[in-house]
Design a protein that fits this description.
mainly alpha; 8 helices; globular
């Protein structure tokens, strides 16, 4: 189901004018969130599964605070990883359209936050941790952590975002295992994505000035 929705999303993205990087960035954010979210919600509705089976369950507020702190740590680690990868490889930066959307003005920034730091983390965590991680746990927790994070990372392609996504995936999976809820992982994911958007805007204005 997720593959089909991603495919539909890609087909729609191909209809976006190539010279409209702002619309392309917002559309990519939307597809990244809506495709996995739609797939999981359809699976729940069709198979009549309990939400708790997907980790869609309440969690103690302290775990959300812990997840936020972990998210900040992940951001710092990812800045280092991205800098190292950029300096030592020719890995492509696929975030250009996202950055164009975020730096296009107030509306673009709000759209990037809503789609990239709210919708996308929810959709991707529901799929990659709520479904894939939970399915892989039968083969061992650590194998599930690594494989689900790897699938998540490579779903972003092989580029500068790949190692960053892997770190986010491992962090979210470990939190999922500890709390049995996807929401701490959503927080980590959201902090990472929001930081990327905010850093892009700060860097853009620093260069512009």
């Amino acid at each position: 189901m997720a593959v089909v929705l991603y495919a539909v999303g890609i087909l729609l993205l191909l209809q976006v004018p190539k010279d409209d990087s702002v619309l392309a960035g917002l559309a990519q954010f939307a597809v990244s969130g809506l495709a996995p979210l739609g797939a999981v919600l359809l699976a729940i509705a069709i198979r009549k599964r309990k939400l708790a089976l997907f980790g869609i369950t309440r969690v103690a507020p302290k775990w959300l605070a812990i997840a936020f702190a972990i998210g900040l740590g992940v951001v710092a680690l990812n800045i280092g990883i991205t800098s190292l990868v950029s300096a030592t490889t020719d890995a492509a930066d696929v975030q250009a359209n996202y950055q164009s959307a975020a730096t296009s003005g107030v509306a673009g920034f709000i759209g990037a936050i809503l789609f990239g730091a709210v919708l996308t983390p929810i959709g991707e965590e529901f799929l990659f941790r709520g479904v894939i991680f939970n399915l892989l746990k039968r083969y061992g927790v650590w194998l599930a952590v690594i494989l689900s994070a790897a699938v998540f990372a490579f779903s972003h392609g092989v580029n500068l975002a790949t190692p960053v996504a892997f770190v986010v995936g491992v962090s979210a999976a470990l939190l999922m295992q500890k709390t049995k809820s996807v929401w701490p992982g959503v927080i980590v994911h959201a902090v990472n994505n929001a930081s990327s958007t905010i850093i892009s805007v700060i860097y853009f204005h620093m260069v512009a000035s």
